[in-house]
Every structure is written in C-alpha cells, then in structure tokens.
Amino acid sequence: MSKKKIAVLTGAGVSAESGLGTFRDNDGLWAKYDPMEVASIDGYYRNRELVLGFYNMRRKELALAKPNSAHRDIAALEEGNIVTVITQNVDNLHERAGSTRVVHLHGELTKVRPETGVYDDTFSEKEVIDVRYEEVNLGDKAPNGSQLRPHIVFFGEAVPMIDRAIDVISECDVLLIVGTSLQVYPAAGLYRYARADTPVYVIDPKDIPIRGGNIHHIRATATEGMKEFIHIIDTL
Ligand code: APR
C-alpha cells in the first residue's frame, strides 16, 4: 500500500495533558499574562527583563513536562506514512515523543538567538543557540555582541516557516488538526490549502470554528482523539 502524506497541525491543546497550559482556555496563559506585554515584539523592546523572565519560567515548566500519548501516537503515524508535524507550539514534546519532521511555526522555547540576526525562511540555524531549559537574562550576549532573545515568533513578527507549512498542507493526502483554537493567523488559515478532496480531521473537546464537507470533528481530548484517529487513518 503506498505511503500516505499526513500533515499534522497542532496547537497548545496537544500539550495540555502534559501539564502545559493552553492560551485561550479559561485558565490559559493569556488569562494570567497580557500577550502584548510578554509575547509581542513591542513588549520585548519595552521591557526585555519581563519578557526574558516569562520565557525563563516557561522553559523551567517544559523541563518538568513529558510527552503524552497524543504526541507518541502522532509520532507513531510515521510508521508506513510520510508525516510532517506543523506545530504552533514552542515546546519540544513532539520531538521528545519521536516525531522526526517538525516545523515550528512560532519558534522554539529551548532556543535563543541574537537580537540583531536577520532570518530567512529557514530561521538560519547557524546563529540559533539551544540553551535547553537554562535561563537567559539581560546581559547574556550572543557571539555577535547583541543581547540574546527568545527564538520565538513574537506577535508583530513575520512567520518565516509559513511557506513551508503551506507547501506541506497543499500536498498532503490527510490533514489532522489537534488542539488549536484556530484564532491566530496565518496558522489558522492553513487548513484552506488542503486540496478539496483531502479529508481534514480536527481533534478538540470543544466546538471548532471550521466546517465543510471534508472536515470531520473528533470531539475529544488529544489523547482520546488520537486513539480514535489511528483506527480511522487505516480506513482512508
Ligand atoms: N486536547 C485537545 N485539545 C484541547 C485540550 C486537550 N486536552 N484542551 C484544550 N484543547 C483545545 C481548546 O479547546 C482550544 O481549541 O486546544 C485549543 C487551544 O487553543 P489556544 O489556547 O488558542 O492555543 P493555540 O490555538 O495553540 O494558540 C495559537 O496563539 O498565543 C498564540 O503563539 C501562541 O501558538 C499560539 C497561538
């Protein structure tokens, strides 16, 4: 049987059962912090220490978190299929669960880079430093002498990997969406690039904002929904 090309678009909901907060649920991160203060480029230049501290806190949380069975089931889809995970998440749980092709649309929490770097669509790995779960503070400088900043796409910044994501979704045979409110563009519009005959499965315990002939809602958490999806994929 020929290998299926599966695109998996994930959001914070896939990591919720690993104990990492989502953004827009009632107890989400944006209920506690103002994203324009801690996750925007203007907020960063207004108060670097506040933003560096926010990402230091999230890096410490990630050190204690572990992939859940949804991450593992997504990684296991690679057996017999060509799978690309396109994640809005900045955590490393997909990689730690075994996914080998992960596109981070919004950057990576364990990485930092010089403030003065200019990035092409590959986010130029040469200047990016993986600090794992360590703190990065004001005065911590890159080799080029500029302040190290989170390797995160802040609100107000371009999403360099979006074209790669569009290519993956426009060529996929199946699109699986797990745990995203589909509120933040351009990621939220990616599903529209799937071909008209490509089935789209959306795993989310709440209502979803998209509908259409080829869109199927699996109303479940990521871990439950993935148990259902791994049976569905064999029938496609
Ligand atoms: N399993 C699956 N989905 C879940 C679970 C769960 N256990 N718990 C919550 N969800 C769903 C919610 O119903 C919601 O649809 O996950 C989604 C989380 O939505 P958001 O909190 O908006 O997170 P996300 O869509 O990833 O946000 C996108 O916004 O702030 C920016 O850069 C940030 O990448 C983030 C982007």
Q: Would you summarize the structure shown here?
A:
This protein has 236 residues and is of the alpha/beta class. It folds into 2 domains: 1-20 and 65-106 and 159-236, 3-Layer(aba) Sandwich (Rossmann fold), CATH 3.40.50; 21-63 and 107-152, SIR2/SIRT2 'Small Domain'. It is 29% helix and 19% strand.
How many individual helices? 9
Q: Estimate the mean pLDDT confidence.
A: 95
Shape: globular
Helix share, percent: 25-40%
Oligomer status: single chain
Low-confidence stretches: none
Task: Please give the alpha-carbon distance between the first and last residues.
Answer: 11 Å
What does this structure look like?
- With 236 residues, this protein is α/β, with parallel strands linked by helices.
- It folds into two domains: 1-20 and 65-106 and 159-236, TPP-binding domain (Rossmann fold); 21-63 and 107-152, SIR2/SIRT2 'Small Domain'.
- 29% of the residues lie in helices and 19% in strands.
- The chain is built from nine helices and nine strands.
- It has helices spanning 13-16, 29-32, 35-38, 41-46, 48-64, 69-76, 93-97, 162-171, 222-232; strands spanning 4-10, 81-87, 102-104, 107-114, 129-130, 148-152, 174-178, 200-203, 215-218.
- Strands 3-2-1-7-8-9 form a six-stranded parallel β-sheet, sandwiched between helices. A three-stranded antiparallel β-sheet has the order 5-4-6, covered by helices on one side.
- Helix 7 links the parallel strand 2 and strand 3 (102-104).
- The longest helix is centred in the first third of the chain and has 17 residues, at 48-64.
- 38% of the residues are buried.
- The model has no long low-confidence stretch (mean pLDDT 95).
